[in-house]
């Protein structure tokens, strides 16, 4: 897994790190129990502050993607073991909030509902086809 920070991107650096790790999990580049680099190592590799990487890891932990094992560091979590009703509700809420914001932006730019829905369907189909596995996280 190679992470790259785009300093010209308006997205906060911790969010860029979070997003790239989630994508690596989705692509299968990171599997359950895989260890991530230490906070210090990743911060040094990326040329960012330790607190930035620590925040990214904390967000990933809170979302159920990572387990923090003290001195052993961060490992990829098994969603079957970390999926609590509260966490599943939070993930659903984050999905709804993100989709709502995208829909609002699309409408503000004069876009039609059907155009938005088609774009969402197309992207979802691409992601699920690209990252297809023998069983999806919801089937496990």
TrEMBL record:
GO MF term set: DNA binding; DNA-binding transcription factor activity
Statement: the UniProt record of this protein carries the keyword Transcription regulation: yes
Domain HTH gntR-type residue range list: 11-79
Keyword Disulfide bond part of the UniProt annotation: no
Alphabetized CDD domains for the sequence: WHTH_GntR
One protein family per Pfam: GntR
Keywords: DNA-binding, Transcription, Transcription regulation
PANTHER family: GNTR-FAMILY TRANSCRIPTIONAL REGULATOR, HTH-TYPE TRANSCRIPTIONAL REPRESSOR YTRA
Protein's recorded name: Transcriptional regulator, GntR family
Lineage of origin: Bacteria, Bacillati, Actinomycetota, Coriobacteriia, Coriobacteriales
